[in-house]
């Protein structure tokens, strides 16, 4: 093992500093919100009205996606299973802690404290998902210190972008297609561009999967698939909006799944299924319906979006990822640009179309709840009429459908620009010599950072026992990954 990858000083020292900073910040700025504060309880308080019972099921579902779904999915390399799952565990845990503070900064600015409740944890999990998606672009060629640094820098950049887009541009993005998927994809591409390793384009002995690693990875896919409706619907308005979000997500995932099986078989030279397609392409529909998930796009619209997202994702893996590695110096190890970038663009475009087509005839007065920025401003007589029909309706900005669509376009370009620049800058920091980065030979290898059990097979032993046909298959697998 290269001495420069030793974690004995780097990781403990870095974690110690982070924990000291975290303790100080939590002590000064973080307190309970009203639903967790004992002083707010009295004999008129009904414990069952606590927001815990509304928000915790979604928090638990997204937590399964973060720690089990992503963890298993990232364990697809044969010699990198420990790293894929454990680095995901480490990065996710820190990202959530850090996101509570970074997303709460603006709450602190207005209220003097960060009021912590389950809803804050849920929002922090979404920020964590951004980091883990970006992690997919650099998996195999980074160490734990580098990943913690990536989380340390990406979370505040994401928090500021999220705040600015929602406060000033003001968009509809219930499923996070713009603020989560597009941001994460282009941040990851920016980082991996700086971390480019020319030798990896020629293939790597350990950049392969195995029977058991593929099974573990598809288990991660199944966890993500099952809980994705919670991810897309968690922050939508309660009631019919949330109901539609669950329905649309399931339909989009279902159509993308069966389409993925069909495409995998027809484009395989031997007419067989490819596990990489099942692990990744099947999830495309969950992203593609995200921007319009709570809108009246109709079940057939969700079905078509699932097919479109799956198709774009499939051909992206097949043609675009190798092209980007060869021509653009972008080694996207997990193909996050296909599953989150391309599908995020399709989803954002579909959301814009849904906004342009939205009318009171289709939505009724609730149109001004779903598209809150189109609601009449304060003082408009129409606002009073709508508030008679929908008590509690808040004043909006009085935007037209075309104006809102243009703001959506502005948010897309702004998010991509900020995330790309942020990824490039983060990549430069991650590439510093003292970050315990593995050598080219040490990439995709758990032995660099872990004490391995005695039954761990080295790549050299594997190749010695392989037939010529198996070596050819390994070379083919490398080119696909």
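^ structure tokens above, recovered residues below v
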């Amino acid at each position: 093992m290269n001495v420069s990858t030793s974690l004995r000083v780097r990781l403990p020292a870095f974690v110690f500093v982070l924990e000291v900073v975290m303790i100080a910040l939590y002590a000064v700025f973080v307190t309970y919100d009203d639903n967790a504060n004992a002083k707010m309880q009295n004999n008129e308080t009904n414990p069952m009205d606590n927001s815990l019972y509304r928000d915790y099921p979604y928090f638990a579902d997204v937590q399964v996606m973060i720690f089990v779904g992503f963890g298993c999915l990232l364990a697809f390399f044969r010699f990198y299973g420990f790293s894929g799952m454990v680095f995901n565990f480490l990065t996710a845990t820190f990202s959530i802690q850090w996101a509570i503070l970074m997303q709460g900064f603006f709450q602190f600015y207005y209220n003097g404290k960060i009021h912590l409740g389950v809803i804050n944890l849920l929002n922090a999990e979404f920020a964590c998902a951004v980091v883990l998606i970006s992690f997919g672009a650099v998996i195999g060629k980074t160490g734990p210190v580098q990943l913690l640094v990536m989380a340390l820098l990406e979370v505040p950049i994401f928090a500021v972008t999220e705040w600015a887009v929602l406060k000033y541009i003001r968009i509809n993005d219930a499923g996070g297609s713009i603020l989560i998927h597009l941001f994460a994809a282009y941040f990851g591409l920016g980082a991996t561009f700086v971390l480019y390793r020319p030798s990896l384009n020629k293939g790597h002995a350990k950049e392969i999967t195995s029977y058991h690693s593929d099974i573990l990875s598809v288990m991660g896919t199944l966890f993500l698939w099952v809980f994705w409706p919670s991810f897309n619907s968690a922050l939508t308005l309660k009631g019919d909006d949330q109901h539609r979000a669950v329905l649309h997500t399931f339909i989009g995932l279902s159509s993308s799944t069966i389409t993925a099986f069909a495409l995998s078989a027809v484009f395989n030279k031997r007419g067989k299924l490819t596990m990489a397609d099942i692990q990744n392409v099947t999830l495309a529909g969950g992203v593609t319906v995200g921007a319009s998930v709570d809108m009246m796009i109709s079940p057939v619209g969700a079905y078509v979006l699932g097919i479109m997202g799956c198709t774009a994702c499939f051909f992206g893996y097949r043609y675009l990822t190798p092209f980007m590695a060869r021509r653009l110096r972008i080694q996207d190890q997990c193909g996050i640009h296909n599953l989150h970038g391309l599908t995020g663009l399709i989803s954002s475009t579909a959301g814009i179309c849904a906004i342009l087509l939205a009318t009171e005839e289709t939505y009724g007065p609730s149109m001004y709840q779903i598209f809150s920025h189109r609601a009449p401003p304060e003082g408009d007589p129409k606002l009073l009429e709508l508030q008679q029909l929908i008590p509690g309706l808040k004043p909006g900005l009085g935007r037209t459908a075309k104006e809102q669509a243009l703001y959506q376009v502005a948010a897309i370009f702004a998010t991509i620009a900020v995330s790309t620049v942020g990824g490039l800058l983060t990549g430069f920091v991650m590439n510093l010599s003292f970050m315990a980065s593995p050598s080219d030979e040490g990439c995709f290898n758990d032995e660099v950072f872990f004490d391995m059990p005695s039954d761990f097979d080295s790549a050299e032993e594997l190749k010695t026992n392989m037939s010529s046909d198996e070596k050819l298959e390994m070379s083919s697998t490398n080119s696909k990954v």
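The beta strands are 30-32, 114-116.
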